[in-house]
Design goal:
single chain, about 800 residues, mainly alpha, Leucine-rich Repeat Variant, 4 strands, about 60% helix
């Protein structure tokens, strides 16, 4: 009995315990169920709204498909009023615009406008477009977009503006009710970096730029006067603020009516000559803001938009662009920051050989770039932005290009590069000179090249004297670097000048060389009666090349070319031209250069493919290219007549030629690479089609004034020194031939050869003389074929 009772008691206790636990658990579950039901109801409401929106859109399309089509204007007005009624009737302004029918109505309005234009004759405005313009629909959309009500409306408005300007062929921007809201919308672009509407903003700005490129005069509508009163701000999305008919805010509509006469007057008086210094160029400002976007695609698009704007020919826009925007600051500041990001020391070969860079197109991989050489990514970024600056200035209106180029000179070249080039650290000099060489090679715009040349060489044009060579410190330092103790610095600086003299800029050649040769005072200036009697056409104390043992008639066939020999390797022979106006017969000049190096110092005739004719083809091509560059400089013709020359001025060859001649005089004692670069620069100068330069560098028979030297006289002295040194070197000719074959890769490197520097110098000297002979021949025939 007791055991039964005890079991019953235990069962009751267990059930009571379980019931109490169940009560506690059920209260927790009840709370969770309430929270779940609440969120479910919210999601269900949102889902219903979306489904209703989609259903309404589908039903609308079905009705349009089945019902008879309304006239386009009625349909257009219906869609617009559907948008305005949304703002009047709705009370939920937090729902995103994608949950409403607004995007669909805007798309329908665009389709109607496009269809209307397609159905009408070109240039005719239809009733729907008239309605859009008269009721200032774009103004209203701008107001809604500015308020971003409902959320995402700004994106929809930008898209609508972009498609409207892109799809409608008739000019819309001249209408005040188009260009005014467009200008207001431009001010909203670029306000916030990395904004969700950045893509739509840049698309809108670019289509405006494209329209201005088609009709540049319209840019005057976008130069906003700073003194214009601030825009009236009006409440948005309230029933009392919107006109039921147009949807435009009533306060703004009234303000627009007050402004219409003033705006119309502004349009009628706008002209290319309206240069107001207090103008804002908001289109440029917005694009400049978007160039700071973290999205590279946005940056490239913004740069493209700026490229279109700077090319507009309107003087007022060009002036406003350079004076009232930060475009120059953007170009130079970014160029400086990219340059300062470069490593302090870089291999000149890496700088010279890095692939060509076009702005906006450089695709890179950081790991791969770092594996090639340190600083490659930074170098590509710098060169890419330099290319953009160069192209922008190249495309810009002339006055704007000049201002931008001067800004680059002052803010980048003078402030940043000049201290780098003037430093004393050899590593720093080498790196900065290599970078400058790459910059010179890359710059193509005329205005930027001009400013860069003025930075490097100065603007002086009067003849140089030995006392004025240091007048421009940077020019003096760069020319001195051509003869630096460091062979690497000498070679790199010589390459820089080689690159520079090939640029299509007359001031470069005038400043470096021609101003010293203008008066031809390198020639003997004694009157004819006071001169020594001539023997065989030369003074008795002059070196007669025909009788000199080095250049006599007993020359071997390999050393002297007959007329038929050197003509057979040239362009078609022209009629014989006798010496006229001081010109020496070309075959004498050619043979003079070919016979300068004595037989025992020649090695080219032992190796195939190293003859004189190989230089003729290169000389012909290079001279043709130079003539194309110099054609507009009016260099062709005879030298300046003696009677017009001031021959009493003491002759100074100029700092640049002095250093080159000094280097040339040491060709037997300099490294092979230095000699190659010195002769490369001199051959480029010899190719120039200027009569004085041709006479001074390529005519061996000119009668030099006392104390003067020419290129030929320098080489003659080198050959004289060579003749004395040849006999001191045993087995000179076999060693010379072996060195030539090694340089050509025909022989492997073996034992060290004594006097290697001298032997390499002799080979360079022989090749240089053949090159000068070819240049003289090509230039003579070009002059003969062009003369009447």
């Amino acid at each position: 009995m007791t055991s039964v009772w005890r079991r019953k008691c235990h069962r009751v206790q267990r059930s009571l315990y379980e019931t109490s636990n169940l009560d506690r658990g059920s209260s927790n579950r009840k709370k969770k169920i309430e929270e779940f039901s609440r969120s479910s109801r919210e999601k269900l409401v949102q889902s219903k709204n979306k489904m209703f929106s989609k259903f309404t859109s589908i039903l609308q399309h079905a009705v349009e498909a089945l019902a008879p089509s309304l006239p386009l204007q009625e349909d257009f007005v219906y869609h617009w009023k559907a948008i305005t009624h949304y703002y009047i009737e709705t009370s939920d302004d937090k729902a995103p615009v994608t949950d409403t029918n607004i995007p669909s109505h805007l798309e329908q309005m665009l389709d109607i406008l496009t269809q209307e234009e397609a159905e009408r004759e070109s240039g005719e405005t239809g009733p729907c477009m008239e309605y859009l313009l008269h009721h200032k629909i774009l103004e209203t959309l701008y107001t809604l977009g500015k308020a971003d009500c409902p959320p995402g409306m700004k994106q929809q408005v930008l898209t609508f503006y972009t498609k409207l300007l892109a799809h409608i062929r008739q000019p819309l921007l001249p209408h005040i009710n188009v260009h005014r809201p467009v200008q207001k919308l431009i001010r909203l672009c670029g306000e916030v970096l990395a904004a969700p509407t950045e893509n739509e903003e840049i698309q809108f700005l670019c289509i405006v730029c494209a329209k201005l490129k088609q009709d540049p005069y319209l840019v005057n509508f976008f130069l906003e006067n700073k003194s214009k009163r601030p825009e009236i701000k009006s409440p948005v999305a309230t029933e009392s603020a919107l006109s039921p008919d147009t949807g435009q805010s009533l306060a703004e509509e009234q303000a627009d009516h007050q402004d219409e006469p003033q705006a119309a007057a502004a349009v009628s008086t706008s002209s290319p000559t309206s240069n107001n210094n207090s103008n804002n160029y908001n289109l440029v400002t917005s694009l400049l803001n978007l160039t700071k976007s973290p999205d590279g695609r946005i940056v490239v698009k913004a740069c493209e938009g700026l490229m279109l704007l700077v090319s507009l020919p309107e003087p007022a826009a060009a002036k406003c662009l350079t004076e009232n925007t930060e475009l120059c600051e953007l170009l130079t500041d970014r160029l400086v920051s990219f340059y300062k990001a470069l490593p302090q020391s870089m291999d000149p070969l890496d700088i010279e050989t890095v692939e060509s860079v076009n702005w906006g197109l450089d695709v890179y991989n950081l790991k791969e770039d770092a594996a090639v050489f340190t600083g490659k990514r930074a170098l590509i970024s710098f060169l890419s932005w330099l290319d953009y600056c160069d192209q922008l200035i190249k495309e810009a209106q002339k006055s704007a290009a000049a201002v931008m180029a001067k800004a680059v000179r002052e803010r980048f070249f003078v402030s940043v590069m000049e201290p780098q080039l003037m430093q004393t650290s050899e590593v720093g000099i080498l790196t900065s000179t290599a970078l400058l060489n790459r910059i010179i090679r890359q710059v193509t715009s005329e205005a930027l090249l001009q400013e860069m040349v003025y930075f490097l060489l100065g603007e002086e044009r009067e003849p140089e004297t030995s006392a004025t060579i240091a007048q421009n410190p940077l020019r003096h330092r760069l020319i001195e670097h051509c003869d630096h103790l460091s062979d690497e610095i000498s070679i790199m600086t010589l390459r820089l000048f080689e690159q520079l003299i090939q640029k299509p800029n007359q001031h470069i050649l005038h400043n470096l060389v021609l101003r010293s040769l203008e008066e031809r005072n390198y020639l003997e200036n004694k009157p004819q009666e006071e001169r020594e009697p001539l023997e065989n056409g030369q003074p008795h104390d002059a070196v007669d090349l025909e009788e000199d043992p080095l250049f006599g008639d007993d020359l071997s066939p390999e050393r002297k070319l007959s007329g038929s020999d050197w003509l057979s390797t040239s362009p078609p022979q022209s009629p014989d031209h006798s010496k006229s106006e001081g010109k020496t017969e070309v075959h004498k000049i050619v043979n003079s250069f070919l016979c300068l190096v004595p037989d025992e110092a020649k090695s080219s005739y032992h190796v195939e493919g190293t003859g004189y004719d190989t230089y003729l083809r290169d000389a012909h091509r290079q001279f043709r290219d130079y003539c194309g560059i110099c054609q507009r400089w009016d260099w062709r013709g005879n030298p300046k007549p003696f009677e017009k020359c001031n021959l009493d001025i003491p002759f100074f060859e100029g700092h640049f030629l002095k250093v080159l001649f000094d280097r040339m005089g040491r060709i037997l004692d300099q490294p092979y690479d230095v000699n190659l670069q010195v002769t490369a620069v001199l051959s480029k100068l010899s190719l120039l089609p200027h009569p004085h330069l041709h006479e001074y560098l390529l005519d061996p028979y000119i009668n030099l004034a006392p104390g003067c030297r020419s290129l030929f006289s320098v080489i003659v002295r080198v050959v004289g020194d060579l003749m004395l040194r040849i006999h001191r070197i045993p087995d000179f000719t076999p060693k010379l031939l072996l060195v030539r074959k090694r340089l050509l890769g025909l022989e492997p490197e073996g034992i060290t050869i004594d006097h290697m520097t001298l032997l390499e110098g002799v080979i360079v000297l022989e090749e240089f003389c053949k090159e000068l002979a070819a240049i003289a021949f090509v230039k003579y025939h070009a002059a003969a074929s062009s003369s009447p």
